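Hi there,

I know you've been waiting on this one. I reran it after we fixed the sequence typo, so this is the corrected version. Both the input and the resulting structure follow.
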Amino acid sequence: VQLQASGGGLVQSGGSLRLSCAASGSIFRLMGWYRQAPGKQRELVATLTDAGDYDYADSVKGRFTISRDNAKSTLYLQMNSLKPEDTAVYYCTADPGVILSNVREPSAYHYWGQGTVVTVSS
């Protein structure tokens, strides 16, 4: 199983980035993005099931959009109106199963990618 995240970089406040996560080695019913800022715990950004159920952290609602292209086995995170507090390492995560009541918990995800760095300057 491989989750290869890409698309991070340096952007000014108010700008946009799109993260991609190429998945291989399994069928993933549940995929998501987490992030970890320096000195902080890893936190949920967004999740998406194969049935289209999604969830977002309150801090990104209305600015970020999670989507997936099943034909390409790729997960995306479109990030608009970026703020300096969005600066973090963003991790793609996935699991072959899904329990809707548990999708906000890191324990719901068996596989994690290597992370891509997003830096938002003020």
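Quick highlight: The longest strand covers residues 17-24.

Best,
R. S.
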